Amino acid sequence: MNCPTCNKGSEVIDSRLIPNGVRRRRQCLNDHRFTTIEQVPQPRLAAQLRAIATAIEGIPKGKTA
Questions:
Q1: pLDDT tens digits, 23-60
Q2: How far, CA to CA in Å, does 3 sit from each of 21, 23, 46?
Q3: Rounded to an integer, what distance in angstroms lies between the CA atom of residue 37 and that of residue 15?
Q4: Phi, psi at residue 52, to the nearest 5°?
Q5: What is this structure's pTM?
Q6: Which of 28, 38, 30 minimizes the C-alpha distance to 13?
Q7: Which helix (H) or strand (E) holds 53?
Q8: Which of 40-59 are b and which e, b meaning 16 or more Cβ less than 10 Å from the residue's Cβ?
Q9: Is 22 exposed, middle or buried (0-12, 13-18, 19+ CB in 10 A)?
Q10: Of residues 36, 48, 52, the one with CA closest to residue 3
């Protein structure tokens, strides 16, 4: 990854897990430091709504009074 300040190459100096991905501390060849976050993609909303609709269809319907 290139440094956002000087556009030189960089190396990872620290990595830490965060709840939804990885936070990496980087340092470029000119000693600039910056942080990148790699996030795990979340499922799309449409897929979640489809799963909910399928679950609701499977619930037996009771008689109404």
A1: 999 999 999 999 999 987 766 777 777 788 888 777 66
A2: 21, 16, 36
A3: 10
A4: -65, -45
A5: 0.58
A6: 28
A7: helix 45-57
A8: eeeeeeeeeeeeeeeeeeee
A9: middle
A10: 36
Residues forming a β-bridge with 26: 12, 34
**In the chain, where the domains are located:** 10-57
Coil, strand or helix at 44: coil
Contact 26, 10 (CB under 8 A): yes
- CA dist 31 and 38 (Å) reads 22
CA distances (Å), origin 41, targets 44, 48, 49, 52 = 9, 14, 17, 20
